[in-house]
Amino acid sequence: MALLRSGDAGVPVKVVASVTAVTGNLPSFTVGQVQTKNATLMDYTVFVATNPSGVGTKWDFEYRFGETYHEASFTAKSLDELIKRFSADAAGKSAESKAYQKHYFKGAPFSELGPFWSGYVCTLNHTTSAEYKACACKGK
Predict the structure, then answer these.
(1) Number of other CB atoms surrounding residue 62 within 10 Å
(2) Which of 55, 112, 120, 125 is 20 to 30 A from 133, alpha carbon to alpha carbon?
(3) How far apart are CA 137 and CA 64, in angstroms?
């Protein structure tokens, strides 16, 4: 996920994993629930394959955005709030932070980002090198 900012406005971006194993992850796919009136992604659910080959695989439920991250929709405002919670959790130990890290690589053993978490979180809503430096270095 990412939040592209422009002044006070923003565009939420949902990046999806590959439905093939070409990237080294287990294949997965995302099903979104969209409010058609204003084209808002209200929620999404991710399903992941039980094996990389696809032969005899089962598509297991992995997680649902709203349930996992406690947000009612995938909007710029809700994503901004979620990223603020990630930022406040400098060690990446909250349930939401751990869920994000766990679901980042499909099929890989869960490995906390630990000391790298704060710097990683800066990539979610700081898209230029100057913005990233200011976030990651905290003015140093």
Answers:
(1) 18
(2) 112
(3) 32
CB 85 within 8 Å of CB 96: yes
Burial bucket for residue 115 (CB in 10 Å: 0-12, 13-18, 19+): exposed
**Helix, strand, or coil here: 43?**
strand
Residue 43 has pLDDT above 90, yes or no: yes
Question: What is the dihedral sign for C-alpha 114, 69, 41, 17?
Answer: positive
120-140 pLDDT, tens digit per residue, is 999 999 989 999 999 999 866
pLDDT in tens, 4-25: 987 777 899 998 888 888 777 8
| pLDDT score of 109 more than 80 | no
Q: In 3D, which of 77, 27, 35 has the Cα closest to residue 55?
A: 27
Phi, psi of 44 (to 5 degrees): -150, 155
Those residues whose C-beta lies under 8 Å from the C-beta of residue 140, and which sit 6 or more positions away, are none
18 vs 76, which has greater pLDDT? 76
